[in-house]
Amino acid sequence: MEEEKQTAGAGAAAQSDFSQGTVPSNILRLALPMVVAQLINVLYSVVDRMYIGHLPAAAGNALTGVGVTFPILTVVIAFANLFGAGGAPLFSMARGRGDSEEACRIMGNVFSMLTATGLLLTALVLLFKRPLLYLFGASDVTYPYASDYITIYLLGSVFVMLGLGMNNFINAQGFARKGMMTVLIGAALNIALDPLFIFVFDMGVRGAALATVLSQFVSALWAVGFLCGRRTLLRLEPRWMRVQLPVVGRITALGFSSFIMAVTNSAVQSVCNATLQTFGGDLYVGVMTVLNSVREVVMTVVSGVTNAAQPVMSFNYGARKYRRVREGIGFTTALCIGYTVLVWALLFFFPRVFIAVFNDDPALMEACVPAMHIYFFGFFMMSLQMAGQAVSVALGRSKQAVFFSLLRKAFIVIPLTLLLPRLFGLGVDGVFLAEPISNFIGGVACYVTMLLTIWPELKRREREQAA
């Protein structure tokens, strides 16, 4: 199959050959636009919260109502990751081997599964909306806001999944700037529409959700349009969209770690909200909404770097450039640790600056400051978890990636969230303390395991090649 040569010039093909040039330069070339893309992607939901948090009346209740929808939004993202994040490394490995047909087949199957799953999720969640929202921490006061927001948002869940999932394949081909445009276009539209729908048309949280849905539709249209066009290296075509169960099985096996990570995030959010509702009421559910919002923003750099490193490591692994894979691991780790140490210092010394972005209610501010100090303690340890897991996914180690996804959230955070407030009498502080404890235990366990398993194997393969 000569499609790559026919559909792109030599310059684009060279730019997408991650076995050439230095490894740090390849990662940074992808990372810079991908970090911007991650930050912009966060703006979809964060901008909504910023505007909602400053509504003229009942801003606190509205913000809390939107906050209890997070577990549902996270599940939508989880399925986008299941197929998108699972298919992209396999796609990159196939490209590294020179197997363009297999790469196209993987991309087409991902598109079909994203579309079908998005439609199914919309129907199921709308059917069980009320009990789910109360389960996730809604009260009689905040339920109307949560219901208004999630009902409209779900109508656009297919667009959310296609935009997020298919953008992985734009980045995997080296078109990081085009991938950035996928979210930039939608985010710019979202920022413009939010104040119009929320304040001018007086739609409140419904306006925020409608702005997000329309923006995600445009993002999805851009991503799919680019992959179907002539400027891409490998084109998304109907002949590759026929679902093949063996291919889907390999995609979901590798994407399961990203899926589990997102689903356990959803479970953690719902357990945290429910526990905080018991020990602190709506005020502390609002505090967790602010902390989650800050966390989403500051984690964009780590997510962007690890997402950029994955196609580079996958391509070189497929091309049997094992020394370059090890260089990618070392560079990614150093960059992530340095950044998260800096962020931890800023959040510790200037918490009010970050909190004020989302809400200026005095009671919420006073409750947020000590909670932020606890929640983000030792924040840099989180980067070890993400770097170690990115390596496992990039090299196709699905079981290892899944295990550490479950370890930190399901086996550490959730039990601690339930036990610390009750058994040790810490109240709401126990909920916030569960996060740093899990970062230390999960981060060390994940990264050390990678160093003891994957790293020696890469060195062994290097020696075999040299011999």
TrEMBL record:
Any one GO CC term of this protein is: plasma membrane
Q: InterPro entries given for it?
A: MATE_fam, MATE_MepA-like, MATE_MepA_subfamily, MdtK-like
A molecular function (GO) held by this record is: xenobiotic transmembrane transporter activity
The keyword Transport is assigned to this record: yes
The subcellular localization recorded is: Cell membrane
Q: Does the keyword field hold Lyase? A: no
- Pfam families in the cross-refs: MatE
- Residue ranges spanning the membrane: these are 27-47, 67-94, 106-129, 149-170, 182-201, 207-227, 247-268, 329-354, 374-394, 406-424, 436-455
Q: How does it sit in the membrane?
A: Multi-pass membrane protein
Q: Which GO terms describe its biological process?
A: response to antibiotic
Q: Which UniProt keywords apply?
A: Antibiotic resistance, Cell membrane, Membrane, Transmembrane, Transmembrane helix, Transport
Protein family: Belongs to the multi antimicrobial extrusion (MATE) (TC 2.A.66.1) family. MepA subfamily.
This chain belongs to which protein, by name?
Answer: Multidrug export protein MepA
Query: What is the organism field in this record?
Result: Anaerofilum hominis
